[in-house]
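dumping this here so i dont lose it
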C-alpha cells in the first residue's frame, strides 16, 4: 500500500472514531467503552481493504462475504431506497477483540447499538466503500465548534502540545522487545492504561467464571433455612436496583449504552451472590447456625453488598484501582451511592467483610475499597441526613458513660474480627451477648447497648485522624514536638463531643483548625496560609477543602472564616484551657495497626522456616546471554556501582536531608475566597534532595525506584 494511501486511511479511521465518540458518548473519558468503539471503527475500515494488503491474522479473518455487490436501484426509486444496515464481520471483529484482550460480547453490543446508530446519523449505513475524508473532517469540525473541546485531530500531526516528553519516548523506544524464540532476557514493555484495564477486566471475568447472576443452590438452602424466607424479596430488590442502575448508566455514558450497563450489572450480580455465599459459609462456621433470617431480611445489608460488588466492577472498567494517577470519571465512587440512594455509613459497614469474603480480589482493588472507606470517614458519612448522627444522638442520650468510643480504648489493638452480622443487625457489642446466635434487638424497656458499627467507625476514624494530623504536623511543627499530643487532644475532644461541627464538613477542616488554635494559645507563630500550603502538598487533598467550607446553612466561605465564626466560637472555652496552669488531661495516642486490607508478600510468619539458595546462573550467565542482553545487563551493573559509590562518598549532611526538611514557606499571596482562584506566585518545591536528583539522572529510573535502591 502506498504511503499516501496508508496515511489517508489512518486519518479517516481516526476522524471517524473521534466523530463517533463525540456524538454518542456523553462520558468520553470512559477508556474501555471508547476503545470498544474504536474496534468497531477498525472493523468498518479493515473489511473494506483488499485482503492482500492486510497482515496476519487479519488477512485470514476478513470474510469473503464481507462486502456484497451493491443492489441496483431504479432511478425512480433511488431517492426512496432505505440504506441497508451495516453488516458486521463477526470473524474479523472477534479477531480484533482477541488481539486486544477485549470482550467480544461487549464489543458486539457496542456495534449493534452505538456504532450502527452513529452510522445512521451521519448517513454512512449503506456505504459500500470507504467514506470520504472531506466529509468526515467537515462533520467533526461542526462537532468541535459545538462542544468547544480541543481538536483531537492534532494527534495526527504530532502536535507538540499533545506529545509526551521526548526523553520518556526515547526510553520506551530503547526498551528491548520480548524474544520468545531465544534465551534473551524478557523485559516487559510498560502497560498503557487501556491495556491495564483490559487485563483487570479479563481477570475479573476469570474469577467469576463459575459464578452466576442468580442465587446458587447453596444460597437457596440458606434462604429456605430462614425463619422468614427472603428469596422473593431478594429477587425483587436485585431486579429493581438493576433497572435503576442500567437507566443511570445510560444517562451517564450514552443513551445507546443500556446493553453495556446491563452486562456490567450482571457481572456485579455474579460477584454479589458469590460474596454473599462466602459470608454465610463463614458465619455458619463461626456461629454453628444456619438460620440467618435477620441478616438476609435486612435491606440495607443487601443494597450495600450489591453496591460494593458493582463498585468493584465499575472501578475495574474505569481503571480506578487505588493509584493516584487513575482517571476520574462520572462513574467513580461515590456514584453508586447516589444511584441506589444508599447512605455512605451503611456502605462502610460492608467493606471489610466484603474483602475478607472474596479471596480473589486483587490488591489494587483492596486499596481502592480502602480509599472508599477513607472518603466515607472523612466526609461522606457526615452528610446532614446521615444515619450516623442518629446513632451519635442515641449514644449521647444514654449518658456520659456511653460514648461513641471511649478515649481509653485508643491505645488498645484494633481487632478486625467484625462481620456483616455484627454491623448491620441490632447495636450490640460482642462482649455483652452470647456469640452463638444472631444479634437480637434489645427487649422493650431495657437500655440499648452501644452500637457495634458506631464503635468500629470511631475506632477507625480516630486512627485515620491521628495519622493525618501527624503527617501535617511533621511538615510544620517538628521544632515543637510537645504540641502534637495537645493538638490531638483538642481534635479528639471535638470529634467525640462536638461532632455537629462535622455535619456537611470535612475531617481535614477540623484538623487544620485545631492545629491553628493550639498554636495561637501556645504563642507559636504559625499562619493559616502556611498550614494550607503544607496541606496542599499532602496526597489525596483537594483545594475545595479549605476554599469552600460550610459556615451556616447554604453559606460557604474559606477555612479562616470557618475558624473565626464557627470553630473558635464553639470551642473557645476548651481551647483557652490549654493556656492555663492546669490544662485538660491529654488523650491517649491511638495505636496504629497495619491495614486489614494489606497482604504484603514481604511479611513472613515467624513460625515458618525460610531457606535461601544461591541464584542459579542459567539465563543470566554471560556465557548463555545474547549480545543484546549482555549489553543491557552490563550497563545495569555499571549504573548500580556508580550509585553505590555516590551514596558512599556523599556528605552525611546531605544524606540527613533525605529524612525531612524545613517547614514550607507560606504562599506570598493566597486569597481565601469562593471563586476558586489561588493567587500563589511561589513555586513548589520538588521535595527531592540533590542526591536523589543526581541518582535519578544517572540511573534513568523513576525517583521512587532510586529511593528503594538507596535504602537497600
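and the seq i came up w/
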Amino acid at each position: 500500500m502506498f504511503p499516501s494511501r496508508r496515511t489517508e486511511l489512518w486519518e479517516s479511521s481516526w476522524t471517524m472514531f473521534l466523530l463517533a465518540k463525540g456524538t454518542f458518548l456523553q462520558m468520553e473519558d470512559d477508556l474501555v467503552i471508547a476503545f470498544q468503539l474504536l474496534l468497531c471503527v477498525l472493523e468498518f475500515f479493515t473489511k473494506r481493504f483488499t485482503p492482500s494488503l492486510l497482515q496476519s491474522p487479519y488477512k485470514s479473518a476478513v470474510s469473503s462475504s464481507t462486502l456484497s455487490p451493491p443492489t441496483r436501484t431504479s432511478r425512480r426509486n433511488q431517492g426512496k431506497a432505505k440504506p441497508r444496515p451495516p453488516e458486521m464481520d463477526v470473524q474479523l471483529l472477534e479477531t480484533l477483540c482477541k488481539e486486544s484482550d477485549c470482550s467480544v460480547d461487549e464489543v458486539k453490543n457496542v456495534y449493534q447499538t452505538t456504532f450502527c446508530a452513529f452510522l445512521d446519523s451521519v448517513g454512512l449505513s449503506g456505504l459500500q466503500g470507504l467514506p470520504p475524508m472531506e466529509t468526515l473532517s467537515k462533520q467533526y469540525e461542526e462537532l468541535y465548534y459545538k462542544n468547544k473541546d480541543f481538536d483531537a485531530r492534532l494527534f495526527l500531526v504530532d502536535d507538540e502540545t499533545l506529545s509526551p516528553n521526548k526523553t520518556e519516548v526515547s526510553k520506551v523506544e530503547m526498551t528491548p522487545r520480548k524474544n520468545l524464540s531465544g534465551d534473551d532476557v524478557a523485559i516487559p514493555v510498560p502497560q498503557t492504561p487501556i491495556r491495564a484495564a483490559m487485563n483487570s477486566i479479563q481477570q475479573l471475568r476469570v474469577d467469576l467464571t463459575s459464578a452466576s447472576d442468580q442465587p446458587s443452590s447453596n444460597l437457596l438452602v440458606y434462604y429456605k433455612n430462614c425463619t422468614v424466607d427472603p428469596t422473593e424479596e431478594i429477587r425483587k430488590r436485585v431486579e429493581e436496583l438493576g433497572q435503576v442502575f442500567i437507566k443511570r448508566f445510560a444517562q451517564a455514558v450514552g443513551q445507546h449504552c443500556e446493553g453495556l450497563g446491563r452486562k456490567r450489572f450482571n457481572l456485579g450480580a455474579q460477584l454479589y451472590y458469590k460474596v454473599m455465599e462466602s459470608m454465610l459459609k463463614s458465619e455458619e462456621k463461626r456461629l454453628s447456625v444456619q438460620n440467618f433470617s435477620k441478616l438476609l431480611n435486612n435491606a440495607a445489608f443487601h443494597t450495600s453488598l450489591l453496591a460494593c460488588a458493582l463498585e468493584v466492577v465499575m472501578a475495574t472498567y474505569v481503571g480506578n484501582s487505588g493509584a493516584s494517577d487513575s482517571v476520574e470519571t462520572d462513574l467513580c465512587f461515590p456514584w453508586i451511592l447516589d444511584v441506589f440512594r444508599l447512605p455512605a455509613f451503611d456502605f462502610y459497614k460492608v467493606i471489610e467483610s466484603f474483602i475478607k469474603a472474596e479471596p480473589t480480589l486483587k490488591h489494587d482493588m483492596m486499596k481502592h475499597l480502602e480509599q472508599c472507606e477513607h472518603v466515607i470517614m472523612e466526609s461522606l458519612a457526615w452528610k446532614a441526613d446521615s444515619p450516623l448522627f442518629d446513632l451519635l444522638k442515641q449514644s449521647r442520650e444514654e449518658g456520659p458513660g456511653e460514648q461513641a468510643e471511649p478515649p481509653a480504648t485508643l491505645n488498645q489493638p484494633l481487632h478486625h474480627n467484625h462481620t456483616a452480622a455484627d454491623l448491620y443487625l441490632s447495636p450490640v457489642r460482642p462482649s455483652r451477648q452470647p456469640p452463638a446466635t444472631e444479634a437480637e434487638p434489645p427487649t422493650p424497656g431495657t437500655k440499648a447497648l452501644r452500637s457495634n458499627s458506631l464503635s468500629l467507625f470511631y475506632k477507625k476514624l480516630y486512627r485515620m485522624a491521628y495519622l493525618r494530623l501527624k503527617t501535617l504536623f511533621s511538615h510544620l511543627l517538628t521544632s515543637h514536638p510537645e504540641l502534637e499530643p495537645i493538638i490531638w487532644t483538642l481534635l479528639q475532644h471535638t470529634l467525640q463531643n462536638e461532632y455537629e461541627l462535622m455535619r456537611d464538613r470535612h475531617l481535614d477542616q477540623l484538623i487544620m483548625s485545631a492545629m491553628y488554635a493550639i498554636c495561637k494559645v501556645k504563642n507559636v507563630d504559625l499562619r493559616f496560609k502556611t498550614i494550607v500550603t503544607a496541606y496542599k502538598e499532602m496526597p489525596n487533598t483537594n483545594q475545595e477543602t479549605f476554599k469552600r467550607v460550610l459556615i451556616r446553612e447554604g453559606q460557604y466561605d474559606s477555612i479562616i472564616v470557618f475558624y473565626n465564626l464557627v470553630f473558635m466560637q464553639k470551642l473557645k472555652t476548651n481551647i483557652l484551657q490549654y493556656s492555663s496552669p492546669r490544662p485538660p488531661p491529654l488523650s491517649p495516642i491511638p495505636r496504629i495497626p497495619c491495614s486489614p486490607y494489606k497482604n504484603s508478600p514481604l511479611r513472613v510468619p515467624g513460625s515458618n522456616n525460610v531457606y535461601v539458595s544461591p541464584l542459579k546462573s542459567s539465563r543470566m550467565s554471560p556465557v548463555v546471554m545474547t549480545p543484546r542482553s549482555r549489553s543491557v545487563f552490563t550497563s545495569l551493573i555499571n549504573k548500580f556501582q556508580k550509585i553505590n559509590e555516590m551514596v558512599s562518598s556523599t556528605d552525611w549532611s546531605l544524606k540527613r536531608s533525605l529524612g525531612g526538611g524545613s517547614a514550607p514557606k507560606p504562599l506570598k499571596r493566597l486569597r481565601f475566597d469562593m471563586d476558586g482562584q489561588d493567587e500563589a506566585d511561589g513555586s513548589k518545591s520538588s521535595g527531592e534532595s540533590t542526591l536523589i536528583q543526581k541518582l535519578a539522572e544517572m540511573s534513568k529510573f523513576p525517583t521512587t525506584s532510586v529511593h528503594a535502591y538507596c535504602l537497600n
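The longest strand covers residues 549-552.
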